[in-house]
Specification:
- The complex is a heterodimer of chains A (about 290) and B (about 550).
- Chain A contains 8 helices and no strands.
- Chain A is an all-alpha fold.
- In chain A, about 35% of the residues are buried.
- Chain B has about 550 residues and is mainly α.
- Chain B has a single domain, classed as Up-down Bundle (Cytochrome C Oxidase, Chain A), CATH 1.20.210.
- The chains are: A mainly alpha (about 290), B mainly alpha (about 550).
- At the A-B interface, helix 1, helix 3 and helix 7 of A face helix 4, helix 6, helix 7 and helix 8 of B.
Chain lengths: ~290, ~550
């Protein structure tokens, strides 16, 4: 509950520098690992631990400040803007890979199969999607169908979007005419979040099974030419975002269980829900453009 | 409007009424927009000299034909790193520093909207630049395939050594830093503005940064995505840019320039904002055509997204693409022309004086227009086939970056340092710095037009003897320009430490208080300002439009 009218400006921040150092060590470690240096993995783990410690510490601090009423409405507006623009940047990031898929399928693969390129370089190459290119990079593979696990996953994510909204309604004041005790609302919030988180992790599990099948039975890998590249890059980044979203929702669930959030003051819930819906919409794009078409 | 800062009617101010903390920790954990602005500016100035030193290596090597000082791979590392350091380490951070300092002062906000994130933006920038700089000391050296990191060149072992993953992760960190900074700036401008200030009351510097912030959020993830694909192509067997696997190296160029073209406007729009702030004060007139300036900025930002492939006329594109990108690019001259004419009209019939910031601004208007005209020449696709990858291009974009972005950053330094420190800089040395810079920058870059038209390619450590004379002249200009910048360093340090000893007034420049809120605050600006939002009286440009 906001009790403050003034804009809260913290006078120091210790977590940013800690998080930065963690992130830097982690990425430097990853780079070393890619270069074949033996200190790489150790650095990655150390950096990751520091980074996770920062996330825990910083978010705990924010939750504490929020619950002790240090944030005015105007602070809430800044946070909402921050989250919306962050999601916007994420949309752009996914846009790059969707754009890559579009360009490859509609422009560059057809160009490889026509004109002088075809005549002089690869006369036997047929420009048909899916392809691993005229060099058959990665060997024979079987493309991923849409109607097995991917379709099931679509239903799962869509359902989780509904359960997330249902949880939100447990937090908001009941609609006029609906009689509901605060306990019922709270129980709806927690149940809804449990369902959403469970569906999120179920999605990731099924995707892991899908990947396993692709690698072990279909010959489809990240190295299967441009089809494998775009397939795993798009679904992989998406799966990572589902994991992150499910973790964020788990934190929101934990905070709901602790009794945080009121109908006026639940920015963390809103932000997590926005993020979840964003991940949901990206999946619909993936289902259509990666699996279906 | 009131010049008095009301400190006592908010109980929440109690815990931050004190001044800055003591010692080094003040800077590491600070959330104060002025401290963070200062850190950005100091860091950017340091990187300006690092990037500048690399430019000196380049110009020394090119002083005469033949290989003099460095081996070709190191020379290519220098051109690559000079660009990356100047763009991501100097120019962009310097403008973020100005934004941090000035935007809250100009819109009557107590601080930036998200102060903790503001701190993290800065430190991520340092981390990103450290990762990048570390490649200089690695086996195989720093990246040397050009700042655009084009595949397949950049993926070949000889060109990357061990540097590629470090460069890629550096881009990721710099991207996160820029996005965080941009989000903060947008949230500050839209949510922290004094309630009585309408959008069309905002100073042009604030407007240009609002639009730049949007550009940053919209394109930094694109660059991050592009380099991520480079990384996976190199280390994880993907085929995004490998034709044998069905990919296309030209795709990288498209993605890169979809980022890269808005990126150049990220460096120029705040430049326009600074010019639009300085010129009216020294012309003692309101800015001419305020609304058209705002719309022109928006138009340039929009066009930024639909012209990228004019960087790739020779890369292989269908004819329709060449034509579309040619015409779309030419349109940019219209809003840019609106701006140049507005600055000129602002000066027209003004009671002008020529202090150092104004001298730099006038030079900017003239020399940026030069850079714009060569840009127009290059926008013509068939002509660009001749100019592409020659020194003409180098001359063009250095005219738009050095006597434009860099000059206006210098101007901003002279213009605002007295406000920030309460001390006046040494006008005589300032003007000496200006004249040395303005003359030498032309000796440095103007001959490069001739070299390019005569066919000298970019990014080579050696050249045919017919290019010797102009290269030597260009190098001489470069050495004078480089040395002159030490004067700026001296002036900044001197001003911070007391300057001429003359105490500046609150408005610093004659009648500046008519032009912006920040000039109604005391000089030096106190550690905390606008803890109560000021009430804005209609500013001059509004009166002017009635």
């Amino acid at each position: 509950m906001s009790t403050n009218t003034a804009y809260y400006i913290p006078h120091k921040a210790t977590w940013p520098i800690i998080g930065t150092i963690g992130l830097m060590i982690m990425l430097a470690g990853f780079a070393n690992y890619l270069n074949g240096s033996s200190i790489g993995p150790g650095m990655m783990i150390a950096g990751l631990l520091v980074f996770v410690a920062m996330l825990v510490g910083w978010f705990a601090l924010q939750a504490h400040e929020s619950e002790t009423g240090m944030y005015s409405k105007q602070v809430g507006v800044s946070y909402r803007m921050g989250m919306l623009w962050f999601i916007f940047s994420e949309i752009i990031f996914f846009g790059v890979f969707f754009g890559t898929l579009w360009y490859t399928r509609n422009l560059s693969v057809p160009w490889l199969g026509e004109g002088a390129t075809k005549e002089l370089l690869w006369p036997s190459f047929e420009a048909i999607w899916p392809t691993n290119g005229p060099g058959k990079v990665g060997g024979d593979f079987e493309p991923m169908g849409a109607w097995g696990l991917p379709f099931l996953n679509t239903l799962i994510l869509l359902t989780s979007g509904v359960s997330c909204t249902w949880a939100h309604h447990g937090l908001l004041p009941p609609k006029p005419g609906v009689v509901r005790t605060p306990e019922e609302g709270r129980s709806q919030l927690i149940k809804g979040l449990i369902i959403t988180v469970a569906l999120g992790f179920l999605f990731v599990t099924l995707q892991a099974i899908e990947y396993h099948e692709a690698y072990s039975e279909m010959g489809l890998t990240l190295g299967s030419g441009v089809y494998g590249s775009t397939f795993f890059m798009l679904t992989g980044f998406h799966g990572f975002h589902v994991c992150v979203g499910a973790i964020i929702l788990s934190v929101v669930l934990f905070r709901s269980w602790k009794g945080h959030f009121t109908k006026e003051n639940h920015f963390a819930f809103e932000a997590a829900a926005w993020y979840w819906h964003f991940v949901d919409v990206v999946w619909l794009g993936l289902f259509v453009f990666v699996y279906l078409l | 409007m009131s010049a008095v800062v009301d400190e006592h009617d908010h109980h929440a101010d109690d815990h931050h009424d004190h001044g800055p903390a003591k010692g080094i920790l003040r800077w590491i954990v600070t959330t104060n927009h002025k401290d963070i602005g200062t850190m950005y500016l100091v860091f950017a100035l340091a990187m300006f000299f690092v990037g500048g030193a690399m430019a000196m290596v380049i110009r020394a090597e090119l002083f005469e034909p033949g290989l003099q000082f460095v081996d070709p791979a190191f020379f290519n590392s220098m051109t690559t790193m000079h660009a990356l350091v100047m763009v991501f380490g100097a120019v962009m951070p310097a403008f973020v520093g100005l934004a941090n300092w000035q935007i809250p002062l100009m819109i009557g906000a107590a601080d930036m909207a998200l102060p903790r994130m503001n701190n993290m933006s800065f430190w991520l920038l340092v981390a990103g630049v450290l990762l990048l700089a570390s490649t200089l000391f690695m086996e195989g050296g720093a990246p040397n395939g050009g700042w655009t990191l084009y595949p397949p060149l950049v993926l070949q072992p000889i060109t990357v050594g061990k540097a590629l993953p470090f460069a890629v992760f550096s881009v990721h960190l710099l991207g996160i830093s820029s996005i965080m900074g941009a989000i903060n700036i947008i949230a500050t401008i839209t949510n922290m503005r004094a309630p009585s200030m309408r959008m069309m009351d905002m100073p042009l510097f604030v407007w240009t940064w609002l639009i730049t912030g949007f550009l940053l959020i919209a394109v930094m993830p694109v660059f991050a995505g592009a380099v991520t694909m480079l990384l996976t192509d190199k280390f994880f067997h993907t085929s995004f840019f490998n034709a044998a696997g069905g990919g296309d190296p030209v795709l990288y160029e498209h993605i890169f320039w979809f980022f890269g073209h808005p990126e150049v406007y990220i460096m120029i729009l705040p430049t326009f904002g600074v010019a639009s702030t300085i010129i009216p004060i020294f012309a003692r007139k309101p800015l001419f055509g305020y609304a058209s300036m705002v719309w022109a900025t928006g138009a340039i930002a929009f066009l930024a997204f639909i012209v990228w492939a004019h960087h790739m006329f020779t890369a292989g594109m269908p004819l329709a693409g060449e034509l579309y990108f040619m015409y779309a690019t030419m349109i940019i001259a219209i809003p840019t022309g609106v701006k140049v004419f507005n600055w000129t009209a602002t000066m027209w019939d003004g009671a002008m004086t020529f202090e150092t910031p104004m001298l730099f601004s006038i030079a900017f208007v003239v020399l940026f227009t030069m850079g714009g005209f060569t840009g127009l020449m290059m926008s013509i696709a068939p002509s660009d086939f001749q100019y592409h990858d020659t020194y003409f291009i180098v001359a063009h974009f250095h005219y738009t970056l050095v006597p434009a972005s860099i000059f206006m950053l210098m101007a901003a330094g002279y213009f605002w340092l007295p406000k920030w420190t309460g001390h006046m800089y040494n006008e005589k040395i300032g003007q000496l710095h200006f004249w040395l810079s303005a003359i030498s920058v032309n000796i440095l870059f103007f001959p490069q037009h001739f070299l390019g038209l005569a066919g000298m390619p970019r990014r080579i450590p050696d050249y045919a003897v017919q290019f010797a004379d102009w290269n030597m002249i260009s190098s001489i200009g470069g050495f004078i320009f480089g040395a002159s910048q030490l004067l700026f360093l001296y002036i900044v340090i001197d001003t911070v430490r007391g300057g001429t000893g003359e105490k500046v007034t609150d408005e610093v420049w004659e009648d500046a208080a008519k032009h912006g809120l920040e000039w109604t605050l005391p000089s030096p600006v106190p550690y905390h300002t606008w803890t109560t939002p000021p009430t804005i009286v209609p500013t001059e440009h509004v009166l002017d439009s009635h």
